Amino acid sequence: MKIVENAECIIQSVKADDKFGERLVQMGVLSGSHLKIIRVGFRGSTIEVMIDQGQSMALRSKEMEMLDCKLIAIPLSALSPDKKKYKIRNFTGGHGFIQKMKDRKINISDTFEITNDHPFELKTKHATIAVGRGEAEKIIVEPLN
Amino acid sequence: MAKKKLTVAICSIPNTGKSTLFNKLTGAHQAVGNWPGVSVEKKTGHFALNGYEITLIDLPGAYSITPTSLEETVVRDYLLKTPPDFIINIIDARNMYRSLGLTLQLAQSGIPMIVSVNMMDEARRAGVDIHINILQNHLGCPVVPIVARTGEGVKNLKNALLETIRDPSTLRIPYLSRPPVVEDAIVALAKKLDKINPDPALNKIFVAERLLESGELPKGLSVDEETLKDIVKEVKTLRSRTESSMGEMLPTTCAQCRFNSARGLVNEATSETIKVPDKITDALDSVLLNKYAGLPVFFIIMFLLFQGIYALGTPMQNIVGDFFIYLQDAIRNTPVFESLPKFFGSFLIDGLLNGVGIVISFFPLIAIFFIFMSLIEDSGYMARAAFLLDRLMHTLGLDGKAFINILLGFGCNVPAIMGTRILSGRHNRIMTMLLIPFTLCSARFQVFVFLAAILFAPSTAPWIVFALYALSFIMVFVVGFILKLLKIAGKPEPFIMEIPPYRVPTAKTVSLRAWMEMKSFLYRASTYIVAGVIIVWFLTNMPHGVEPGSIKTWAGQIGEFLQPVFHPIGIGWREVISLIFGFVAKEIVVGSMAVIYGTDTAHQILTSITPLQGLSFMVFILLYTPCIATIAAIKAESGTWKITGLSLILGIAIAWITALIVYQGGLALGFR
């Protein structure tokens, strides 16, 4: 999975045949566990992950990438045009930001496709909306199948 | 009536307050900290409970007794081979899920257990409400809410323990649902176990599950070859059968069963209140762990700490130092002293009092150092430092946790090296063990403060010491890189580290920690530092009749003999003597210099060593073998003379080469 702050995933399976998986399993990180990347360290090698039950752990992004996960949330800014459908999950900005998005007809649970990423263009049922990079970081989306 | 003796083991996952509870129960003083893995070996204490004499054992933190690390192996072997009479398990109230996996595993063991839910105050503040009776019903044992830090509920815990000791009939083993194929395999194996008679205190299902998971039999069983073979074969068949039908490793299946129960139990026992995220931790981490600001902030914190230690400690050091000079003068002027033989008087004042006095004068400096150190440990910043430095450590093939040990080395190398056993994998342990001796420990710090104050202007002295800190950091990485290239320590390991929430350090834990370090400093000062100082005095005053402290003395002879080796790095015979004694402990370097140079030590040193020679001397002290205790710790932890020898040679060689570069380079640049 993509290593980016605010991304969330659900573990599909942990292979306990290596040390990393073995240890995660005994710490209660198992298939069905919900992980959220809350911090990516300097130059991206070390990350801080929050496990569904509120425990915070430091891991390496390399090992995280190896996990069999289903992505359930990712900031819009980490995506590129791919003809896939996404749903707005939530915003990380404050009230002002949410109002601003509302005014531009971007609401939680709207579905869209990404048509461009310089700047971001979201094609919804009704319109195509342009979003700045900074704004895209605060828009958390969920991939739809 | 003789008291009845019982053994009780505290067993829980890391960072749940085991050591704090241990201290509360036994009244002992044990180091605690807010980062996972403070208790690295099992410690024992005693307390009396209404006619029972309880031996309390503090086991190292373990996530489960299906071992994936050394400390977990220690715990499993302990429980299987010498089951205690009771277990006290601790659950972290802020996050019960992470603790319950182990609790459920322990509850299967058949050993009577009491569960305490610790950090209730922090859970309350976070809005988590825990229904103790639900936990109690599900776990089948008494559950007591406590706050180990303040002692709240500890009395109830003792009462619950007493009641269970008197009447264990209320206890039962909780039901854990497993897939039928796993259940069948465990039951089948448990039946076979009757033949080898495991400890009757242990539940057979529990032993069978451990056996099936690990595939190895507990050692020291009195069974014949035939039965043993039979059981090993049975374990293999059963295991491969369950694994192929479940499609995953057996330990994963078992963990899944436990944690499914744990998840359900948490949902049932906690209120519906939405968990409030720890706002303070979030806010602090957004700065302290910031992608760009985190590392600079770390170095600024380190620098400020250093400045703080220096600014607060040195004036106090002067006060204590002045007191000893006053004491020397006072004794010198007493009629009793004047009646003593001159030789003995010189021994008492120039030797013992001067040498030990200068060492003791560092007492306040060390106290402040350890107060700051325990502030970092107890607040939870230590784990953050590990997170920040992980990337850098990764280039050495190590991880952030190893950095914590290296940071601890700046306090004292010995506990830092003992602490390497919490690291995962032999590679990490050996590497870290070899790097720790290059850290500027608090004993070396004393030597540097002492010498820098004499040889350099008051405004430059702190910077010289700070530069030595920087050099120490750099050398750790340089040596680490060399070791990595030489592939001495083997293959690196994956990195998983818990990051605890921040916590306000209590005055009690901080002062306790500082006091423990003080005690061990005073112990060293009063035992082998005194001994070292006495030996140095004799060497520098013998044979009888020669001028004390001259080249004709025994010390002078030794120094002169070694002179050719030390000449290129600008170290004179007097310093060579103190270096030899520095092997025992670095504090002796200061003490022995005081004895060698006699009264008015500072002035004498200033006239015979140039600043550049002093610097080369300090660099050598920074990098060569820290002390005998460190060597002993490396031998004990690595288990081989090879690594111990390597550490010795590495230290001396690197010290000599670096000092050569500093001294000859300095000369070439025109310094003196």
What's the helical proportion of residues of chain A?
10-25%
Instruction: Specify the CATH class of the largest domain in chain A.
Output: Mainly Beta
Q: CATH homologous superfamily of the largest domain in chain A, by name?
A: Ferrous iron transport protein A (FeoA)
Query: Order of strands in the sheet with the most strands of chain A?
Result: 4-3-2-1-5-10-6-7-8-9
Uncertain residue ranges of chain B = none
The geometry of chain A reads as: elongated
Question: Which key terms come to mind for this protein?
Answer:
heterodimer; A: 145 residues; alpha+beta; SH3 type barrels; 2 domains; 10-stranded antiparallel sheet; 4 helices; 20% helix; 41% strand; B: 672 residues; mainly alpha; Rossmann fold; Helix Hairpins; 3 domains; 6-stranded mixed sheet; 29 helices; 63% helix
List the helices and strands and how they pair.
The complex is a heterodimer of chains A (145) and B (672).
Chain A: E1 8-13, H1 19-26, E2 34-40, E3 46-51, E4 56-60, H2 61-66, E5 68-75, E6 85-91, H3 95-103, E7 111-117, E8 120-123, E9 128-131, H4 133-138, E10 139-143
Antiparallel strand pairs in A: 1-2, 1-5, 2-3, 3-4, 5-10, 6-7, 6-10, 7-8, 8-9
Chain B: E1 4-11, H1 18-26, E2 43-49, E3 52-58, H2 70-81, E4 86-92, H3 96-107, E5 113-118, H4 120-125, H5 132-139, E6 143-145, H6 154-166, H7 180-192, H8 204-214, H9 225-246, H10 250-269, H11 279-288, H12 294-332, H13 335-339, H14 342-360, H15 363-379, H16 381-394, H17 400-409, H18 413-418, H19 426-435, H20 442-455, H21 461-486, E7 497-498, H22 507-541, H23 554-566, H24 573-582, H25 587-597, H26 601-608, H27 611-623, H28 628-638, H29 641-668
Helix pairs in contact in B: 3-10, 7-8, 7-9, 12-14, 12-15, 14-22, 14-25, 15-22, 16-17, 17-19, 20-21, 20-27, 22-25, 23-24, 24-25, 25-26, 27-29, 28-29
